[in-house]
Amino acid sequence: MANKIKTKVLSFSQGHHKLVFFCLDASHIWNNFAINRRVEDKDEGYQRTLSPSRVKKIAKYVSGGNTLPLSILVSLEKGKYRLENDFILLNNEPDIGWIIDGQHRVAGAHESKAKVILPVIAFLELNPEEQIRQFVTINKEAKGVPTSLYYDLLKHLPIGTPSERAKERAVDIADTLKQDEESSFFGRIVSITSPQKGELSLATFTKKIAPLVFENRGFLASYSMNEQVKIIDNYYKALKNTFPKYYKDDDSVFFKTTGFGALIRVLTTVFSYCLKIKKGFTVAEIGDILNEVNHFNFDNWKKIGTGNAAEIQAADDLRTELEESLSTESDESRIRL
Known about the structure:
Number of helices: 12
Strand order of the largest sheet: 2-3-9-5-8-4
Strand content: 15-25%
Number of domains: 2
Structural class: alpha/beta
Distance between the termini: 89 Å
Radius of gyration: 26 Å
Shape: elongated
């Protein structure tokens, strides 16, 4: 194997970025650039998992003599290439750069075993933050790129608006919960693959939790990150203890989009009653509150449908039960004058 791959190059600039254009055999791109299939819970890289079906379709397409004229977008790492007059010399070794866009075309062309020359546009020496920004910008409207991945990437980018900061905090909470073996959410929040039974997508978790931690607005905003994590985790642990039948169900409504959304809507009510009556929010104290409605039939939530209206209805049903059961005890807890 030669130490360098030499090919004609054209240099140009766009905005603040320096780029080059060259052509390269698909197999060289496959062998020398990282496709970087992102693995769940690995905080490195940023590409979504390759779809085997898409790769096979492209391989079949190429094997049929069809063309792939669109360019592959990559980022070249510093020290892995050299510009020399009208040529670029690429190190003939793995991971000389990252594929930002076009990974399925590269994989499909490589799998076809045909000799396919692909056009390549390369950013020169983008830092990881800029690589992520380019990936998000280019793929945001692409079919098959999960919303959860964008939320997962937010923590790697400079966050500006209050809304973005709230989403970033929600992602951090999710990361903490899904990695804690003692948490009710351990291994249950996914950002790349589609959620299976008993799992939540990071997109769903973020969408429901971000409003709670929105600065100067969310009811959990005044609490620290650790306290926010504990409040959400304690809540779900108490739900597990109070409603074991529904929690342990393989297709638990507690981890479905509508059910999770409804329970988070009711969290404010449970939190308020707990502080008012119990003066704390431990798992045991939450359990005392939830025990007032331990007869509640969550099976009805599976029949209520999906969407925002169904979520609101489910939350209202549980909240009403709580309020009716706790109204007397709440009145008795008021200060005597």
